[in-house]
Design goal:
CATH topology of the largest domain in chain B: TIM Barrel
CATH architecture of the largest domain in chain B: Alpha-Beta Barrel
Number of domains of chain A: 2
Distance between the termini of chain A: 71 Å
Number of helices of chain B: 30
Structural class of chain B: alpha+beta
Number of strands of chain A: 14
CATH topology of the largest domain in chain A: D-Maltodextrin-Binding Protein, domain 2
Radius of gyration of chain B: 80 Å
CATH class of the largest domain in chain B: Alpha Beta
Radius of gyration of chain A: 26 Å
CATH superfamily of the largest domain in chain A: Periplasmic binding protein-like II
Number of domains of chain B: 7
Number of strands of chain B: 35
Largest sheet of chain B: 8 strands, mixed
Distance between the termini of chain B: 120 Å
CATH superfamily of the largest domain in chain B: EAL domain
Largest interface: A-B, 40 and 41 residues
Largest sheet of chain A: 4 strands, mixed
Structural class of chain A: alpha/beta
Strand content of chain B: 15-25%
Shape of chain A: globular
Helix content of chain A: 40-55%
CATH class of the largest domain in chain A: Alpha Beta
Strand content of chain A: 5-15%
Oligomer: heterodimer
Number of helices of chain A: 19
Helix content of chain B: 40-55%
């Protein structure tokens, strides 16, 4: 009887193992091509980036997705801020919010916030060591909030800041004034060149005084503050273990002040359009520092009026730096996978891996102005050799970008609670003040005051001190 | 078994069949209930209903959005009108002048925020406004000022600083104002390229212009029935636009909202139609031919490109048939009313269509069908497997057991039945095993006993009705036949082989009915087998036993028993057996002689010198016989002083005679010293008979030789004489008569004839003599009968027979009237024999009627015993009258006459014969007549055969005459012969004459 019983148990085990084998077959994939798993990806892409991304998503759905049973739906939330707001609303289950997406694009700060809410999936276990090491280390590290090797942000496309130039107009200026690209290489030279350009353009209309044009604009002021500070030897947000220690050095702040606020109120720098690319389009400025991804928005023509426009060429240069350490900003959100069913997470990782494979990553890069995230993809040879159709402007951007990635230490602030808001303070406190004060200056000039008269008030140390104290105070609110 | 042939099924099949039947019935029930229930059709209808409901609901949402929300632009339109009015007032310009001035940025900046708010609040993906008074499209100017903004996330909360808004078209001044970001395809003005295909702004403008102020702006509202894209941009969209009309009726532009196809698709979640996103939504407008033209397609399965192959037709208001090259689709339609009745574009009909491949739509029913089918098949499969397993498991142990039994049957090994795990079967098989074990044990014991018995045993079994023969392996070898395939032996074959074998061996039947086979083996020795068969019911069991040893032993014992201890010669049995064997082989016998010898003086020797010496005498004789006969001669002592010697294998009788002579001489030469010191010779008498001349039969020859020997013994002892067939025949004859005598006695086969006795004086019949008649093959003479009776001491029997039989016959004649009632009956009685008292009584009882007329004839004997005579005469009813018979034939006739004092004297035939010529005889008669007459006795002459004799006797004055001449005896006595009557008549005549 005992033998009989054993036999029965054995039989039962056989049946069970068969069942498991049947359920688990297909390389342990929890996916079923006949019953595809739908995943939603939220991006903030616009324009070319969105088209590039959507076209890749379509490719994926038709090929690997169909084969493995994954349907990816791409939803653009329009802007980084909208994306963040909506993600948080969804994650926190606010009334009227959408369902939490399976993947959303996010900067470290947002990812961190969502992670604090317990909604971010650690992808460490979904990638082999080999797969992990394929990515550029600092990109992978960005998602390691706890410093335990976790991967909570999957790098898909990174951008950095470059200097984009309306070469057509620059060449006229350069030809007439002897300016060269070297004059755009560091901060002090940039400011000086901007002043030279202002004066050069002002001179074009001798009958109108102080109607010079701005050479330069800047998109991301927070980057300017953070990277500038790093270049000058100070890290504003020192984060360890999710806790931020503020290090807003006054000397550094002053340097930043002098190299943006001062030229701005004098009209050497400008930021009138929504983005600096808008300013380029309307002929407001001829150069700006902005994300490499914004190059796709760089226009072919400049419309100085509704009826008056001319074609321009562009060029891309390395981002001007302060004298000091070589830091470049590492930006561009990564993909954050939210917690969900096993099949969904698995599908997300499958998609992200596919998306970041060199061939596709480079294609996406050349279409959108982002940089490939893998070590092998991040080379000029790989890019040119990829066979992708590359616009001239993109090629220029990528060449510069790759050089910069390779010659600089890439920096991005570590995530901490309230990081986004703290960053926004850096984003707006200086630029808003500059914009407001410039407004006053313009008004004064319109009333017939000279530039010097108009700006003298703002160039006082007190003005700086007041701003510094105010900003410092605002920032200190985020120190834990 | 054959009786149940039709039902010869295995357990496996029985179980399998029953279970299969149950399964089949169950399955039929299941299928029947499903088909009858129409479940599948209901499911399909249900799926259609759900689809229609979804389309209905979604259609009402979408229609609501399109007709009431998105196209409700009166607020912003009024705002724009108001602003423009102010600007015109301010600048003192007409609308046309303003439009031409290129200052539309003023108006745009003024109303931009309101437009953005409108876009946000209506959750549309774009909003636009064109400022122009000179007409749009067609002959319109190359560029038109205006603004076209997009919000790519219309459903999201409005962003601060309009961060999510990109402008596609806006004057440079507006862009420089810095609150709007440009899209990559931004242009300062609308160009002709924007109005190539579907001038989304042209139709309403034109409608308003043609309406000449009679139509409101809303009435001229228009939904593009095809998607369009702005130049430099590839995003498809549809738009609603309506003219901008100043209160004075001036049409100065168009304002409208745009719905990007991508966005519109998100408002048509096709996933809600069917599971797995199989369904598709389509916003369609009707074309002139009544079919539907796709406007917006929302599908996970279809792309716009693929729609070309589709053809939509109404089947009724709510349904549409959808086909492409490959598949059948089912569609539900919801009509969307976007325009007021009689509005310029009222002829454009809009619909929301939800459709899906029929396979997908009915997926649930199909799945149900498949699941049912799968579970049906699964149930059948599992059922079949289960049934098979159950049947198999049920039958396996039994099958296994039966296999084991079969195997054991073939190998002949002892059953060892493994456990099946089923108690009942194990108990059953255990019982069988034990039983078989016991049988085997007893068989083994039996076999051991048989083996120990050192006798080869073999056997076979035939079963009635079966063609199978069970034969032990050693059966045929024992019979001397090797290489017989006993495995495939049929009954016929078996019998045939047996018959074949039996041809070559001799057999005999033993006393117990068994058959003994004697076989010559190759080594020359004999082998004996005993075969017995037993019929036991329908079984015929044959047993073959090697009895060689016992037979040989028996033969040895027989031989020892058969041989004479004293002489070491064969005894009687041994000789007979040996001789019989020889007699069976004439070619071995050739010429032979059987000699019977009797030692002459044994009795006296024994008497004189004792038995020991007698034995020595016998031994010496035996040795002599053995030594003086040729080798191989069969010598035997039959017992006592009798020996028998068979000479055989000779070519002729002469040689045998020489041997006999040699033996005879040798016997004569033997001498030995008697205990008393005298020398004594051996003396033997012998007789012999020839083979085959006298007979080829051993018993006959033995009889003959014995006869011959006794002939010698009776005559001159000490001789060897040949068999005399003549003497033998005589002897035989005697023996035959004697035999017949007994037969006669036993059967009472004796009859009596009667011969009349005539009175001499007148020839009248005085009486009759009863004469014995014997009618046996060789015994015919009454004399002989009496002789044998006397020898055998059976005279009393004869006496009794005579008395009764004669009386009986006479009574019969008397009854018939064949004899004279007054005549006397003369019966020959044996003088010295008497009837017993019982016989006398019986006789008197039966024959009292004639008893007083019976005269007893006493035949003369040597010594007549008067006692007995007296007793005769004293017998009850008897007269006591005697006649003395055969007077004059010898035996003291006179003495008898004296002692008996008879009434009648019968003169013997020897006296009568030739009395006519013999004086002496005449004298004897004369004397007796005289003697008799003097004493009152009467004389009867018997045996008269001639007239002369009769004549003389008459002369001699005898009283009565008897004889053939007068009358022969007969069963019915004849009358007096003619000759005798004449003679008597003559005599009387002459006598009378004399007187």
């Amino acid at each position: 009887m005992i033998i009989q019983k054993k036999k029965r148990i054995l039989c039962a085990l056989c049946v069970l193992s068969l069942a498991f084998a049947a359920a688990g077959c297909g390389d342990k994939s929890p996916l079923d091509p006949k019953n595809p798993t739908s995943i939603t990806v939220w991006t903030y892409y616009n324009g070319d980036q969105l088209s590039a991304f959507d076209s890749l998503v379509e490719d994926f759905n038709e090929s690997v997705g169909a084969e493995k049973g994954i349907i990816v739906k791409s939803v653009s939330q329009g802007s980084v801020n909208d994306l963040e707001t909506n993600v948080l609303a969804a994650v926190q289950g606010e009334v009227g919010a959408d369902e939490v997406p399976n993947i959303f694009m996010a900067y470290a700060d947002t990812a961190y916030t969502v992670d604090q809410l317990g909604q971010v999936m650690d992808l460490k276990d979904y990638l082999s060591e080999e797969e992990k090491s394929a990515y550029i280390d600092s990109y992978i590290k960005e998602g390691d909030f706890a410093g335990t090797g976790e991967i909570k942000i999957f790098p898909t496309a990174k951008s950095l800041e470059v200097l984009v130039l309306n070469k057509t107009d620059w060449d006229v200026f350069a030809a007439e004034t002897g300016a060269s690209y070297d004059d755009l290489a560091d901060m002090e030279s940039l400011v000086a060149t901007a002043q030279k350009y202002y004066e050069w353009t002002d001179a074009k209309t001798p009958d109108v005084p102080d109607d010079g044009k701005a050479l330069f604009g800047r998109d991301a002021m927070a980057n300017y503050m953070l990277i500038g500070s790093m270049q000058l030897g100070q890290e504003i947000f020192q984060v360890s273990d999710g806790k931020m220690t503020l290090n807003f050095d006054k000397t550094v702040a002053r340097k930043l002040w002098d190299n943006y606020y001062i030229p701005y109120i004098k009209g050497y720098f400008a930021a009138t359009g929504r983005f600096r690319s808008d300013d380029i389009k309307t002929g407001n400025i001829i150069a700006y520092v902005g994300s490499s991804s914004s190059v796709s928005f760089f226009p072919d023509t400049v419309s100085v009026s509704d009826s008056e426009s001319y074609p321009i060429e562009m060029d891309v240069l390395a981002c001007p730096e302060f004298e000091g350490e070589d830091y470049a900003v590492q930006q561009g959100a990564g993909m954050v996978v939210t917690k969900g069913e096993e099949a969904e997470v698995y599908a997300c990782v499958e998609f992200l891996k596919w998306f970041t494979a060199d061939e596709r990553n480079i294609k996406f890069s050349v279409d959108s102005g982002y940089l490939p995230v893998t070590k092998t993809g991040n080379s000029k040879d790989a890019i040119t050799g990829s066979g992708a159709e590359i616009k001239d402007s993109m090629l220029k951007t990528l060449n510069v970008g790759v050089d910069m990635v390779n010659s600089n230490e890439m920096y991005t602030t570590k995530a901490f609670e309230g990081g986004t808001k703290a960053r926004n303070i850096l984003e707006y406190s200086l630029s808003d003040k500059a914009a407001a004060d410039r407004e006053i200056v313009v008004g004064r000039i319109a009333q017939g005051l000279s530039m010097e008269e108009s700006t003298a008030e703002f160039e006082l140390d007190d003005n700086f001190d007041a701003w510094y104290e105010e900003t410092l105070q605002s920032l200190q609110a985020f120190v834990q | 078994m054959s009786d149940h042939k039709g039902k010869d099924r295995t357990i496996f099949w029985m179980a399998l069949r029953s279970l299969l039947l149950v399964l089949t019935v169950e399955m039929l029930l299941l299928v029947g209930s499903l088909v009858a229930g129409g479940v599948i059709q209901k499911l399909n209808r249900n799926a259609q209903d759900i689809l229609s409901k979804q389309v209905e609901n979604r259609g009402s949402y979408v229609a609501n959005d399109m007709a009431l929300n998105w196209s409700n632009l009166s607020a912003i339109s009024d705002k724009v009108d108001g602003c423009l009015q102010e600007i015109l007032n301010d600048k003192r310009m007409t609308a046309a002048e303003f439009a031409e001035s290129g200052e539309s940025a003023l108006l745009i900046n003024e109303v931009c925020q309101d437009m953005i708010d409108t876009m946000y609040s209506k959750q549309v993906s774009g909003i636009f406004m064109l400022i122009n008074t000179e007409g749009l499209g067609g002959s319109a100017p190359e560029t038109v000022q205006g603004i076209y903004m997009r919000d790519l996330d219309p459903t999201s909360m409005p962003s601060d600083l309009h961060a999510d808004i990109l402008v596609e078209r806006a004057p440079v001044a507006v862009v420089r104002a810095g609150y709007l970001a440009t899209d990559t395809s931004w242009q300062p003005v609308f160009s002709a390229a924007d109005s190539i295909d579907q001038p989304f702004f042209y139709k309403p403008y034109q409608a308003a212009v043609e309406g000449k102020g009679k139509l409101s702006a809303e009435a001229c509202g228009y939904w593009t029935t095809q998607t369009y894209n702005l130049s430099g941009d590839n995003r498809k969209a549809i738009a609603y636009s309506q003219p901008l009309i100043l209160p004075d009726g001036t049409v100065y532009g168009v304002i409208g909202v745009e719905i990007l196809s991508d966005y519109f698709q998100t408002l048509l979640p096709s996933g809600e139609l069917l599971e797995r996103e199989c369904g598709s939504y389509m916003i369609a407008s009707s074309t002139e031919d009544g079919s539907l033209a796709p406007v917006i397609l929302s599908s996970e399965r279809l792309s716009d490109g693929k729609m070309d192959g589709f053809h939509f037709t109404f089947t009724d208001q709510k349904k549409t048939a959808v086909t492409d090259e490959e598949n059948e689709y089912y569609g539900a339609v919801r009509n969307m009313v976007l325009y007021s009745r009689n509005a310029p574009f009222d002829s454009d009909k809009w619909y929301l269509v939800g459709f899906a491949k029929e396979d997908d739509l009915y997926a649930f029913a199909i799945q149900v069908q498949r699941t049912l089918m799968a579970s049906f098949i699964g149930t059948i499969l599992i059922g079949l497997i289960g049934i098979f397993l159950v049947s198999y498991r049920l039958s396996k142990p039994i099958h296994m057991l039966s296999g084991e039994v079969e195997k054991a049957k073939q190998t002949g090994e002892l059953l060892s039945l493994p456990s099946t795990g089923i108690r009942e079967i194990d108990q059953f098989s255990g019982a069988i095993t034990r039983m078989q074990q016991e049988v085997a044990d007893s068989a083994t014991r039996f076999m051991q006993i048989i083996r120990m018995s050192s006798v080869d045993l073999a056997g076979y079994e035939l079963r009635e009705g079966s063609d199978r023969v069970y034969v032990t392996a050693n059966y045929f070898p024992l019979m001397g036949a090797e290489n017989v395939d006993i495995d495939n032996l049929t009954v016929d074959k078996f019998r045939q082989i047996k018959t074949e074998i039996k041809k070559n061996i001799t057999s005999r039947t033993a006393e117990d009915g068994s058959t003994i086979y004697a076989m010559q083996q190759e080594n020359g020795k004999m082998k004996y087998l005993r075969s017995t068969t037993t019929q036991d019911g329908d079984k015929l069991v044959g047993l073959l036993e090697d009895v060689t040893v016992s037979t040989l032993e028996k033969k040895q014992i027989e031989r020892e028993r058969d041989s004479d201890i004293l002489t070491k010669l064969y005894g009687r049995q041994g000789f007979r057996r040996e001789a019989e064997e020889l007699f069976a082989q004439p070619d071995v016998m050739k010429h032979a002689a059987l000699l019977m010898i009797d030692l002459d003086n044994l009795k006296t020797t024994n008497d004189r010198f004792g038995h020991n010496f007698g034995d020595l005498y016998i031994q010496t004789a035996a040795r002599c016989f053995q030594e003086n006969t040729p080798e191989g001669t069969l010598c035997a002592r039959l017992g006592g002083d009798e020996f028998q010697i068979l000479f055989y294998g000779f070519d002729d009788r002469e040689t045998i005679r020489q041997c006999l002579d040699k033996l005879y001489r040798a016997i004569g030469e033997v001498e030995f010293v008697l205990p008393d010191g005298q020398n004594m010779g051996l003396s033997a008498s012998g007789g012999y008979a020839w083979y085959p001349e006298d007979s080829d039969s051993l018993p006959v020859l033995m009889k003959y030789s014995d006869f011959a020997m006794y002939q010698v013994k009776r005559t001159k002892k000490g001789q060897l004489k040949e068999f005399d067939s003549e003497a033998w025949k005589q002897q035989i004859s005697e023996d035959q008569s004697r035999l017949e005598f007994h037969q006669m006695l036993d059967a009472g086969k004796i009859s009596y004839h009667f011969q009349p006795i005539f009175r001499a004086e007148d020839g009248e019949i005085y009486g009759y003599e009863a004469l014995m008649r014997v009618d046996m093959p060789s015994l015919r003479e009454p004399k002989m009968v009496l002789q044998i009776a006397r020898e055998e001491g059976l005279m009393s029997e004869i006496e009794r027979l005579t008395m009764f039989k004669a009386s009986e016959s006479y009574m019969a004649l008397l009854d018939k009237g064949a004899v004279s009632p007054s005549a006397f009956l003369f019966i020959n009685s044996i003088a010295n024999e008497d009837l017993t008292t019982e016989d006398e009584k019986e006789y008197h009882g039966r024959f009292a009627q004639i008893q007083d007329r019976i005269i007893i004839e006493i035949t003369e004997t040597e010594n007549l015993e008067m006692e007995l005579i007296r007793k005769k005469s004293a017998a009850e009813g008897f007269t006591g009258i005697f006649a003395l018979d055969d007077y004059g034939s010898g035996y003291n006739s006179e003495l008898n006459l004296l002692t008996l004092n008879p009434h009648y004297v019968k003169v013997d035939v020897t006296i009568v014969r030739d009395i006519d010529v013999d004086e002496n005889k005449q004298q004897i008669v004369r004397n007796i007549v005289q003697y008799a007459h003097e004493r009152g006795m009467k004389i009867i002459a018997e045996g008269i055969e001639t007239g002369a004799e009769m004549k003389k006797l008459l002369e001699l004055e005898v009283d009565f005459l008897q004889g053939f001449y007068l009358a022969k005896p007969g069963a019915v006595p004849p009358a007096l012969s003619e000759d005798a009557r004449l003679l008597l008549w003559d005599r009387r005549q002459s006598g009378e004459a004399k007187e």
